[in-house]
Amino acid sequence: MTTEEISRIDKIIDKYEGEEGILIQLLLDIQQELNWIPKEVAERISQRLNIPQSQIYRVASFYTAMSLTPRGRHLVSVCMGTACHIRGSPRLLDRITDILKIQPGETSPDRSFTLNTVNCLGCCALGPVMVVDGKYHGKIAPTEAEEVLKNYD
Amino acid sequence: MPKINSPAELEKLRKGIVSKRDPKKPCIAVCTGTGCLALGADKVVVAIKEEIKKHGLEDKVDIKETGCPGFCERGTVVVIYPEEICYLKVQPEDAGEIVSQAILAKKVIDRLLYVDPTTNEKAVRESEIPFYKNQMRLLIGNNIKLDPKSIDDYLALGGYSALAKALSQMTPEQVLAEVTKSNLRGRGGGGFPTGRKWAECRNAPGEARYVIVNADEGDPGAFMDRALLEGNPHSVLEGLIIGAYAIGSHEGYIYVRQEYPLAIENVTIAIKKAEEYGFLGENILGSGFDFTIKVHRGAGAFVSGESSALMTAIEGRVGEPRPKYIHTAVKGVRDRPSCLNNVETWANVPLIISKGADWFTGIGTGGSKGTKIFSLVGKVNNTGLVEVPMGITLRDVIYKVGGGIPGGKKFKAVQTGGPSGGCIPEEKLDMKVDFDELAKAGSMMGSGGMIVMDEDICMVDVARYFLNFLSDESCGKCVPCREGIRQMLKVLTNISKGKGREGDIELLEELAEITRDASLCALGRTAANPVMSTIHYFRDEYEAHIKEKKCPAYVCKELISYYIDPDKCQACMICLRQCPAGAIAGDKNQIHVIDQEKCTKCGTCFEVCPLRFGAVKRISGEPVPPPIPEEARVIARKSKENE
Ligand SMILES: Cc1cc2nc3c(=O)[nH]c(=O)nc-3n(C[C@H](O)[C@H](O)[C@H](O)COP(=O)(O)O)c2cc1C
Ligand code: SF4
Ligand code: SF4
Ligand code: FES
Ligand code: FES
Description:
The structure holds two protein chains of two kinds. Chain A is an alpha+beta fold. Chain A has helices at about 5-15, 25-35, 40-50, 55-60, 80-85, 90-100, 145-150, and strands at about 75-80, 115-120, 130, 135. Chain A has two domains: about 5-60; about 75-150, 3-Layer(aba) Sandwich (Glutaredoxin). A five-stranded mixed beta sheet of chain B has the order 12-11-15-13-14. In chain B, about 55% of the residues are buried.
């Protein structure tokens, strides 16, 4: 990590210093900042807050919102919740794996896309729903997926 | 903003806010909840603001960005006040007309009104739309009237008056007694009596105790908690503060899943505002009662919504359930008494305190009082959030509020209770919806998911879907849950692939029993419900999969084939062009044929084949006819013959 990165991480850690039960919140912030949780960061947290690294890894691997490997430039999340399932999200996902040539949980070799599935995004009335970089796309037919993804590279 | 120090000051402030507001002044309310934002509500707001500016109406018209009134499917939802005219599916391009027609000329814009899909009648006012008319919107009704980021909006509608009443006119014991008398039951799943839980927490030994809002909303397909917290966060805060006062707690948590960024944003702003105004912090409204709230984000694990798991997560550790020989109300966060209730449960509290337990028990059935918000989704005409009195029939929810099944399809089942619930068939549609009736039918109230399924849904696939979900989400701590779910999933997967065997149904029943009886938390204990209820009501469908290798709903990929009927194919080449697998052979005047080896059964050809040809067929449980020989594929068209 560069010193600039270390100071960015330190700033996030500063926010939580001295508080109880903050590990999950802290890791969520770091995930948001860096898009993943690198090994050096886990070491840094462990050092500064006196939390065993094993605990950090256990939390980071338990939760789907955290990633221990680098994510792609664009994060594509396809909702697999019940409402979306009933309205055809499996077929949408099939189409997207076809287009991006990666499976859920994978990142494309050139790091352009990471694909994952989520359980519900709270837009169930608009199913099937997918989110690209925080932008929600509702009522997406499999045949429209390509149109949406074309706008990202 | 100086702090409000007494109920009298609060009333004065409220009068001040209300007197500055002219009820006749036109107001354009635009829903900017997550659903409408997904449909471009932000662009609608920008466009309307531009139009207002263009006409120089900045001082004459208010624009309000509100929370979700539940009709997301028809978003962006726009309501014009004071006439309460409701426009649906509003696009940015409509902004000009909305300002020039609806506001300036006071004319109704016909094309943006609700049209009843069955009668084709239009509805002008929100209260005339069947979707809303048949609801009882005590909790969610204010969402379209207020800007969730404005505490003044909440105050103008009478907000925090229940808190003032509780703190100044009632003792904590009286508040507790009122909630107990209301028979309010938890809206997060189990329907546990709220008053009883509060009393248990209040009476538990120890100094510090916590009150917690469960906004993890893990049920995939339900979004009422999102709409409440995002659209009317102060109502949840007010309930929580009142509960804290009754229980004697000075610290509260709101546990929100990080998949709800807007809810997190809005509730964080609401907490800040409430602190500024003196509804949170020290000596609230001069009563001597202190209370603070922190927001804790969940990180995407269904099981973390379970009470003991959620409390472990608040401590910063992995959110897994632990044995609850002692209730979390007695020993929860950091082993201190902790009272956890669902978002909707808390939101009911201010109403009960303001209007009284007797008013509340006047709504609902013997064992279930008040209203419940359901997330009515799936194959139904009006999808969205619907708040109805307990005791309404399923039929009324699906047909009166929901407007029935779209596309002339047949209703098959409704799934309630999320992954712990079950599927209820047509013959039970007249049953009353409440905690006990749903349980009797083999399902659950759960958090209020109501997923409507039509004839195109396969019940084996639905059961498999839920078990797949649960097998991903089981924390794996107890063997019966982890292995039981995995084994049931294996059997179901085999059945859906045509590898089902005689005796599989009985095997599922046996596995279900063990999983139910020997798991630690409710995830495992209820995991078999989706399987058991579908076997109970749709056994013949299971048998068709097992014995005839047939999926009657044409869903299970391994059991279906697509086939082009040579007598109907018009060689239009539409399917051929769209087939992603390149599995269709054909040409301009050549009947098309699907190469069954190459076909991935994506269903595209079935969908795109023009309705008037209807040449693509789905086949299940019988062999695919052999492809017609090459030489017979030429279509001799009449017009061509005449040339
Ligand atoms: C696996 C599992 C997941 C749960 N998820 C939620 C949830 O997302 N939201 C919720 O309010 N309750 C959830 N519950 C229920 C809670 O454990 C708890 O009963 C509830 O929050 C209590 O609030 P109530 O009495 O107001 O319903 C879940 C339970 C289990 C077993
Ligand atoms: S029943 Fe399942 S989810 Fe619950 S604690 Fe046991 S393994 Fe975990
Ligand atoms: S089902 Fe899909 S893959 Fe098979 S022929 Fe039709 S379009 Fe092609
Ligand atoms: S089920 Fe997909 S958004 Fe809720
Ligand atoms: S988000 Fe606008 S109606 Fe639900």
